[in-house]
Amino acid sequence: ADCLELAEEQSERLGSLLADVRIAEARRALARGSALPTLSARAEHTRQEDTGSKSAFALSDRSETRLVLEQPLFQGFRDLYSYRGAGLLEEAARKTRESALLEVSLAVSEAYGRLLSLEGQREAVASSLALSQSRWEELAARLEAGLGRRTELLLAEAQVARNEAQRTRLEGDCADARSFLGFLLGIPTDLALAPFPRFKPPDLPPEALADRALGRRQDLQALARREAAAREAVRAASAAHWPSVDLTGNLYGQREGQSEAIDWDLAVSGNLPLFEGGRTPARVREAAAAQRKA
Questions:
Q1: Which residues have a Cβ under 8 Å from the Cβ of 249 and sit 6 or more positions away?
Q2: Of 220, 269, 281, nearest to 91 (Cα)?
Q3: Of the candidates 237, 230, 233, which has an alpha carbon nearest to the alpha carbon of residue 284?
Q4: Does this model's pTM top 0.85?
Q5: Cα gap 151→157, rounded to integer Å
Q6: How far apart are CA 172 and CA 163, in angstroms?
Q7: Is the CB of residue 244 less than 8 Å from the CB of residue 76?
Q8: Which DSSP letter does residue 46 get?
Q9: What is the pLDDT of residues 274-290, one digit of tens each?
Q10: 179 neighbors 115 (Cβ within 8 angstroms)
Q11: Between 252 and 58, where is the model more confident?
């Protein structure tokens, strides 16, 4: 567990994917905010040519302060589609990071297990080397006493040489494995390693295990959510053909002229797009192409 936490902190890819999650969260909040009302304070001072008229509509100087509340009432469901798409993209970003985290965990587990295996092999070869050296010393003593044969001693020397070569190779492999594990963890790995905990596989048939593994593929789930988000983007782009209706309310703090006695007003406005230079169809085609790509 400690190794996995260190690897997660060390991985630049996981850090980048976490930033993608934060960006997706901000975009979802932005999409939600477009459907909520806005409240602002405004102040205006108007100066115009003095016509000499005494009418309140012709004042040369007018000041006005007000609070403005604006609420979109209907925008062709663009806000709904955009919000749903942003939510799907946020989920996809999280799934992508979870998939990358599993890959990092797998890499660390493989590196850790390989190092444990190599160190076990090195210890076994070291034991074999000690036995072969002991056997060579015994045969050398017997040959010196005239009780052994030269061929037996040569065979023992060859065995000692093979064990020494294996030990040297395994020492190099262990050093490389420790270096790679240290690269993944971002710390020196010159400490003794704990053995792997025992793992009992689930008692399921191979087909069930395959279906279970496929259902837990975070990368496939992320792709499915991106595809769904692309469909929502097409709907949001198409909704720009619809009319929009907005509500605007004003609460006046200071007014001058004919409207001085009016403290508040409400207005409902509608807009029907008739021609925008082909921008809306172009956005729809762009979103549809992105959907096919997803």
A1: 68, 69, 70, 71, 264, 265, 266, 267
A2: 220
A3: 237
A4: no
A5: 10
A6: 14
A7: yes
A8: E
A9: 988 889 899 999 999 99
A10: no
A11: 252
Residue 1's CB is within 10 A of a number of other CB atoms, namely 6
Please answer whether residues 248 and 69 qualify as being in contact, where contact means their C-beta atoms are separated by less than 8 angstroms: yes
For residues 218 and 96, is the Cβ–Cβ distance under 8 A?
yes
Token pair, residue 71, equals 């609420």
End-to-end Cα distance, the chain? 35
162: nearest Cα among 182, 184, 133, 203: 133
Q: Alpha-carbon dihedral of residues 115, 120, 126, 129, nearest 10 degrees?
A: -120
Structure tokens, 78: 């663009």
3-state secondary structure of 270: strand
What residue has token string 């496929």? 214
Q: Which of the four pLDDT bands, split at 50, 70 and 90, describes residue 270? A: very high
Query: What pLDDT digit, counting tens, does each position of 28-72 carry?
Result: 999 999 889 999 999 988 776 666 665 555 556 778 899 999 999
Query: Which candidate, 292, 154, 172, 290, places its Cα nearest to that of 233?
Result: 290
* Alpha-carbon gap, residue 51 to 44, rounded angstroms: 21
8 or 188, higher pLDDT: 8
Coil, strand or helix at 37:
coil
Token output for 215: 């259902």
* Interval 63-109: pLDDT, tens: 889 999 999 999 888 999 999 999 999 999 999 999 999 888 888 88
CA distance 87 to 109: 33
